[in-house]
Design a protein that fits this description.
membrane; mainly alpha; 4 helices
């Protein structure tokens, strides 16, 4: 079951969800570690290169996820869930996508502020745009940090909501994001 159905997420949506979740949490942890490094630390350049490369990979997955979502169907809310909570969940998802978009744009603006391209796993480069503003790296860096912290807060809220559905409501909200379910 690759595609979503009316009651379940398909394998593609599930893999995208969990792969991106691991990447976002990993990038956040790596980002917190990186800001503590000095220029002379042995892993300073390596951590930056890894963060940028994984970040560009996240951009590609985010674009694919937007396309997959736009072209496919979305499962209906779980039976018995309240309309108000469904609206909250929908709003949280919109903010997750919005924050992810701002993070990748600000990350790009940090990385290309000096006019250099971004090397992606030494396989190819993403060119810098011929545009910059005064203190671009600093401004984009602050945006990147605060939006990343906001994203992680929202991810925690999202995870707590999924756990509430599973352990308190005892519905299939979390289960259908772990493995595809047959339509009822």
């Amino acid at each position: 079951m690759l595609k979503n159905t009316k009651s379940s997420y398909g394998v593609v949506a599930i893999l995208l969800h969990w792969l991106m979740a691991v990447m976002v949490i990993g990038l956040f942890g790596l980002g917190l570690y990186m800001v503590e490094l000095t220029y002379y630390d042995s892993w300073y350049k390596g951590s930056l290169d890894l963060h940028k490369s994984v970040g560009i990979t996240l951009v590609a997955l985010l674009i694919f996820r937007f396309a997959w979502r736009a072209l496919g169907r979305q499962p209906e809310p779980v039976a018995g869930s309240s309309k108000a909570l469904n609206n909250v969940a929908h709003t949280v998802h919109i903010f997750l996508y919005l924050l992810l978009s701002v993070i990748v744009i600000s990350g790009y603006l940090i990385s290309t502020a000096d006019g250099r391209a971004i090397e992606v796993f030494t396989l190819f480069s993403i060119p810098a745009i011929d545009f910059s503003v005064a203190n671009q790296a600093d401004i984009a860096g602050k945006v990147h940090y605060y939006v990343a912290c906001s994203l992680i807060g929202l991810v925690v809220l999202h995870a707590l909501g999924a756990l509430k559905h599973h352990f308190i409501d005892k519905d299939k909200t979390l289960v259908r994001m772990i493995k595809p379910q047959k339509d009822d």
